[in-house]
Design brief:
By secondary structure, the protein is an alpha/beta fold. It folds into two domains: about 5-30 and about 245-275; about 40-235, Rossmann fold (3-Layer(aba) Sandwich), CATH 3.40.50. It is about 55% helix and about 10% strand. The protein is built from eleven helices and six strands. It has a six-stranded parallel sheet with strand order 3-2-1-4-5-6, sandwiched between helices. Helix 2 runs antiparallel to helix 11. It is elongated and about 90 Å long.
Length: about 280
């Protein structure tokens, strides 16, 4: 049996093993494959990069654990960027897991010296969906008498100058739902709004960017990788894109090998039948 036949008859277990290796290696050590940056991610980055040390922004966690794989790389990159710039963040959430996700993502920054109550606060989950967002942006402390850690919001220095969303420099949301409710409730306050969305619904939000209601959007895993590219700070987003790209290359190669093996074998079988006749 020659090499072409063997390529066409590779054991599925070998294929799966190679695929796992190809996916894990870039995650452990990013290759750094080039990623082009889309105009909407570029716009998102530009507005956030213009923020100054001490500025306050509001960030809503609108995704659950089940949707984290597509939007969390964006969230991690944006938080890292804001912490480097010493921008202060008020975290809110319209999903139940939001408060816990914030605690996990901010743990390394808190360990690095960012002070809770001064550099960031986690207000946690507020039930009600769009009504909760409306209440939050209208009167923050009334919507959240206590934060996720049980502190009175009146006691948190970061919130001393913030009554409504109009008192912050930027509003960011990360969601696995559509952008409609954020646009309806936040844009009337005339502050810049940026959205991080899963790739399957990001197209739905593009008209809001074109209309100027959203400053920019980030789309799925690629949006996180693009943001890291602009930051010049590779992280999980670029590593995941490397793994995805390498996985696709491996699958395409196996498809090519299988087809070459099939046609070669078919040609040989036809030749044998012709010779036997």
């Amino acid at each position: 049996m020659d090499i072409l036949e063997r390529l066409g008859r590779i054991d599925n277990r070998i294929i799966y093993t190679l695929l796992v290796i190809v996916l894990l290696v870039p995650l452990a050590k990013p290759i750094g494959l080039p990623v082009s940056v889309g105009k909407y991610t570029q716009k998102s980055f530009e507005v956030m990069d213009k923020l100054q040390a001490g500025d306050i922004i509001m960030l809503d966690m609108g995704y659950s654990i089940s949707g984290a794989s597509d939007v969390e790389p964006q969230t991690i990159a944006v938080i890292k960027h804001m912490m480097k710039k010493n921008v202060r963040i008020i975290f809110t959430s319209c999903v139940q897991e939001g408060g816990s996700i914030v605690e996990n993502l901010m743990a390394p920054h808190e360990k690095a010296g960012k002070k809770y109550g001064e550099d960031w606060v986690n207000l946690g989950y507020l039930a009600g969906g769009e009504n909760a967002i409306a209440a939050t942006v209208r009167d923050l402390k009334k919507a959240y008498p206590k934060d996720f850690r049980g502190n009175s919001t009146d006691s948190l220095p970061l919130l001393s100058t913030v009554k409504s969303v109009a008192d912050v420099k930027l509003y960011i949301f990360f969601t696995t739902q559509n952008a409609d409710m954020y646009v309806r409730q936040v844009t009337p306050y005339k502050i810049p709004v940026v959205g991080g969305l899963i790739s399957t619904i990001s197209l739905q939000a593009e008209p809001y960017v074109q209309a100027g209601q959203l400053v920019g959007i980030m789309s799925g895993l690629r949006g996180g990788a693009e943001y890291e590219t602009l930051m010049k700070d590779p992280g999980f987003g670029l590593a995941s894109m490397d793994a995805q790209s390498m996985g696709h290359v491996l699958i395409v190669l196996f498809i090519i090998f299988a087809n070459i093996s099939y046609f070669v074998q078919r040609s040989r079988d036809a030749a044998k039948r012709k010779k036997g006749a």
